[in-house]
Amino acid sequence: MGAQKIVHNLPQKTKFLNRQKEIENLERQAVALGRPLIAVWGNSGVGKTTLVNAFAWKLYDSPPNRLPADLRLSYIVWVTAKTHELQSRKKPFGKMGLYRRNMTRKRQKEGVLVGSVCEVCAIISGVVNGESNLISLAKRKCLEGKENYVREEAHLLLKTLARRNQWLLLVVDDIDSFGHEAKGEIFTFLEEEFPTPHVAVLTSRRHIDETQIKGVYSLPLGPMPESELQKLVREESTNLGVRLSDKDIDEIIRFAQGNPLVARLTVSMLKRKTGISVSSILREWRGQKTGLQFLFESLFRPLSDLQKKMLRTITVLEKEGLSYDVDFLADICVASSKRVQEELQEIERTLLLEVVGYKPFEVNIHRLVQEYILQENPKEIAKIERGLQGRQ
User: Could you read off the pLDDT of 185-229 as tens digits, one per residue?
Assistant: First the structure.
């Protein structure tokens, strides 16, 4: 088994310090017990994606030896709706963009999949067949109206792998972002056409149980224990060069209430604002909003006008399902492409946005950040929307 190369399309490996018990439980359910469907669910920012990413990389780096002797892990397929990878795209103007997924399109006949499921199946087939440019390939197949063919191809490949005793791990990250109809179609595919011994792991902000999808093992991800959160805060402060006393760390842990994203954003805020202390952050907060909402607002407000416009523009583009790149963003924001890249790096340090890559351009902007930005200045959002409509 060790000689067998595992083919994957996993995102970049992230440093993972905590949640070892949950990692071990995931491995036990997927490997030792062979559960076909596992749903990891919990509040925003609690670390679901990080956990599943660490689990998948652990299997890649150290293929499990508890599988039956004739069964080997051969493929790990990662599908996400968080970044450009599986979000709908449509043409804003000229040569920009290629595709928009129509979430509300009615099926022409029984069994025709909506775009999201077509893309999931196309990516499964693409990884197994060694294709490159998986996202473009998936979108092209869906645009060509080959939903039934794509679904059948993925199902046949999965059955062939099963006959060869080759195990495939599928991760569907942030399944809520696909929308209710597409989410139901994905559940149907996994129930009916995802044969054993393959395993699918889903992440969701909402509880998923057997009333929604048969045979699923529901794994809630609760607050991070204080001891692990303390390690995270110390690591984050060291990385950002923020000096914290033991009292500061204790206050951050109490404020975070087990949410690692709140803890990381608090340290980021201390880095961004000179002369501010943990105590002053807590005094300003005073429980009027959720910790995440307060931190998003506190990190967004000091940004430059250009940085704010960039974040608002990216939020509208994501909401509308528009394809874009750095040059397009620079054109909208009336700045050079080089300046936009520099400003993106500055915004990224606040943790409000993550740049996954520039070629192709992919960003990850937290859904709660998008919700805050859409409500923060409706007039500016409407102005950007009108400007984009004029370019289509």
Answer: 899 999 999 998 899 999 998 899 888 888 899 999 999 999 989
Cα angle value 168/32/64 (rounded, 5°):
60
CATH match of 7-220 with 3.40.50.300: yes
> Which parts of 239-341 are beta strand (E)?
none
- The number of residues in the chain equals 392
CATH class given for the domain over 305-386: mainly alpha
Q: Which of 186, 165, 231 is nearest to 80 (CA)?
A: 186
Please state, as a whole number, how many other Cβ atoms lie within 10 Å of the Cβ of residue 211.
Answer: 8
Is 328 in a helix, a strand, or coil? helix
Written as six digits, the tokens of 16 are: 């993972």
**Pairing state of beta strands 361-364 and 7-8?**
unpaired
- pTM flag (> 0.70): yes
Condensed to tens digits (0 to 9), the pLDDT of residues 172-182 reads: 998 887 777 88
What is the domain partition of the chain in residue ranges? 7-220, 226-300, 305-386
Rg value, the chain, Cα = 22
**At residue 202, what are phi and psi to the nearest 5 degrees?**
-110, 150
Q: Six-digit token pair at 377?
A: 């200045």
Question: Under a CB-based contact definition with an 8 Å cutoff, are residues 195 and 158 in contact?
Answer: yes
User: What one-letter code names the amino acid at 267?
Assistant: V
Which H or E run includes 204? strand 199-204
